[in-house]
Amino acid sequence: MTALAWQRAGTPASATPRPAAVLLHAWAGRAKDWQDSGWTAGLARAGYDVLVPDLPGHAESAGVRVPDGLEPGAWTAGAILADLASLHVKHLAVIAFADACALAGHLAVRAPAAVVRVVLVSCDDREGLPQAREAAAALRDPRSRIWQVEVADLLRRARSDPRHDPEGLARWLASGAWPAAPRLGALETPVLVAVGTEDSHRPRAPRLAALFPDARLVTVPGDDVTVLAAPLLREAVVDFLSGIDLDTPLAPW
To answer: Are residues 76 and 180 in contact, defined by beta-carbon separation less than 8 angstroms?
Structure first.
C-alpha cells in the first residue's frame, strides 16, 4: 500500500540492474502528463522501470495532505521514498519538470545513495512561481478579485483537473522551496539541467547547474511548455541515464 497514487510501466526494477526512472510532474499537473507526452512509454521501451506519482493534493493523490507547518517538498520526498521502498525500488533516477525540480532536490539530499541521477527540466535557482502567494490566497478564498495575469494563469492551472485539492495546491505555492544550497553542493550525484532555447529559465539555468559539483547543462528547442516534447531532450536524458555503470553494484540505501 502506498501513500500516493502511482502509475508504473516498463521492466520491474527487480528484473534489471538499471535504476527505476521516477518522473515528477509540475505544480497543478498530474502523472498522466508524462504519459501523454510520451515519456512513460519512451523510457519503458528503453528498458526502465518507470514510476510516476500524482503528488499530494493533485489528481488521484488529492486526498493526501502535507501536514501543517511542514515544507511540501521535504515531506513529499519522504513519502515518495517510503512508497518506493514498499514497491521494492532501491535505486532511482529522478526526472523533474518545472517547479517539481525543487522536489527532486529534496529527494537527492534526503537519499543520496538511492538517487543515482537527477534530471531538472525547465527550472532555475529561483524559488516559487510568479505571484505564488497571491494565487495561494485566491485558492483558499474563491471570492477573491484577481487582477494579476500571473495569478489568473495559476488559478486556471489549478482548476484544470477537478480532482485537484485547492488547499493542497495552495500549500505548494505558499511554502514550496529548494533545499539549502550547501546541501545541494554536497551531493555527488550527477545532475543534468535542461532548458529550451526560448525558455524563460534559460538566463539563470547556469546558476542552478553551478550549485551542483557534478552537473551538465543542455539546451534544446522549445519554451517553458514545449521543451518537454523536444526529441533532443529525450535523447539527452536517455544518454545521461545510460552513463550509469551497470557492471558496478549500486550502494544500498
So the answer is: no
